[in-house]
Amino acid sequence: MIKNIQNKGEIIIYETKQGPKLDVKMEKQTVWLTQAQIGLLFDTERSVITKHLRSILDSGELKENSVCANFAHTAADGKTYNTKFYDLDAIISVGYRVNSKRATQFRIWATKTLKDHLVHGYTINRKRLLETKEKFAELQTAISFLREKAKHELMAGQEQEILNLLAYYSNSLNILEKYDKNKLNLPSGEKTRYALTYELASEVIKNIKAELIKKKQAGDIFGRQSAHKLESILANLWQTFGGRELYKSLEEKAAHLLYLIIKDHPFIDGNKRIASFLFVYFLDKNNFLYRKNEEKKINDNALVALALLIAISDPKDKEVMIKIIVNLLK
Fold first, then answer.
1. In Å, what is the CA distance from 210 to each residue of 107, 196, 282?
2. Using the 8-state DSSP alphabet, how is residue 191 labeled?
3. Does residue 216 come out as left (phi exceeding 0), alpha (psi in the -120 to 50 range) or beta?
4. Closest by alpha carbon to 295, among 329, 324, 257?
5. What does the DSSP assignment read for 208-253?
6. What is the rounded distance in angstroms from the CA atom of residue 207 to the CA atom of residue 201?
């Protein structure tokens, strides 16, 4: 049980029959725990928590200055020390890495609770949502799609990234008022400054293959092309109709690049990995990979989840997937 006793209220965050019971700090509208408390929560050694936290921060999944803070903490000896605490984002990330029975119980609880919150929590402002019923239905379609695909066996272990995608996408609710039409449109986006040609993509894939073979993470058939599919996909990104580009924005081109390489299988082996590499390369070359705070718009773990979602999606859901990717990039 994680329990906060502060001011007038008592908030129960998470509990199991076996415990433990923790008195936690509530600051800046989130929960904070020390490494020792996180270890107690997930029934594992503090050294294990330290290892996972370092991996999370080193990989860039979370930023240390965003999820860590120093607070005064009274230790078992009765003395007060300045101690490092970690917020709920860090606690959840660790919870999805720790291999223990209690951590498994936490993951089951977190997946169900957070999904329910994300899908149903935005009904708070009923009047506003009723006024935008048709627009909201489009967002619900996208979120329902993510929830459904989260149950697929190939998505096992990707629960946290599905939750992240749901969270990011639910934030799109604040754009409802900006739409004039009765459905979720592809927002007008950035202009493409750097075109990805077939020759350039082939060179990138050649370099990727050499690196992966060196690391023994790919074989000789990795990146071997099937017919002229890749050339066709890349040409399609700059296709015009009536003198105008079919995919007007950088975001649309990037989304179709990721989707089409995964779905059309232009390679004998490595389609998802190559699609992800080219997606990142294309965004980076157009100075569109990072947000202003220097975080990736779609981090590596989320990209893995997206690639798997595309792979298991029905072709009839193509437009839903494209809209999800475009809005995540926005």
1. 38, 20, 20
2. P
3. left
4. 329
5. HHHHHHHTTS--TTBT-B-TTHHHHHHHHHT-EETTEESS-SHHHH
6. 10
Could you tell me how far CA 154 lies from the centroid of its own chain? 16
Mean pLDDT of all residues belonging to the chain: 77
Indicate whether 132 pLDDT > 60: no
Query: What are phi and psi for residue 213, nearest 5 degrees?
Result: -65, -40
Q: What is the DSSP string of 81-150?
A: EEEEEEEHHHHHHHHTT--SHHHHHHHHHHHHHHHHHHHHGGGSSHHHHHHTHHHHHHHHHHHHHHHHHT
- 26-74 pLDDT tens trace: 777 677 888 988 888 888 899 999 999 999 899 888 888 888 988 887 7
pLDDT digits (tens, 9 = 90+) for 67-124: 898 888 777 777 887 889 998 888 888 888 888 888 888 777 777 765 565 455 444 4
Helix (H, G, I), strand (E, B) or coil at 183: coil
Q: Which residue has the tokens 């800046």?
A: 28
Tokens of 11: 């908030």
Q: Which residues contact 7 (CB under 8 A, 6 or more apart)?
A: none
User: 146 — alpha (psi -120 to 50), left (phi > 0) or beta?
Assistant: alpha
Q: Which residues contact 24 (CB under 8 A, 6 or more apart)?
A: 2, 3, 4, 13, 31, 32, 33, 37
Is 233:185 a contact under the CB 8 Å cutoff?
Answer: no
Phi-psi label, residue 2: left if phi above 0, alpha if psi -120 to 50, beta otherwise: beta
Whether the CB-CB separation of 251 and 189 falls below 8 Å is answered with yes
Q: Which residue has the tokens 């649309």?
A: 252
Q: Give start and end residues of each alpha helix (H) in 150-196.
A: 159-170
Q: Side chain identity at 232, as an amino acid letter? A: S
pTM above 0.70, yes or no: no
What whole-number distance in Å separates Cα of residue 247 and Cα of residue 108? Answer: 40
| 246-289 pLDDT per residue, tens | 888 999 999 999 999 999 999 999 999 999 999 999 999 999 98
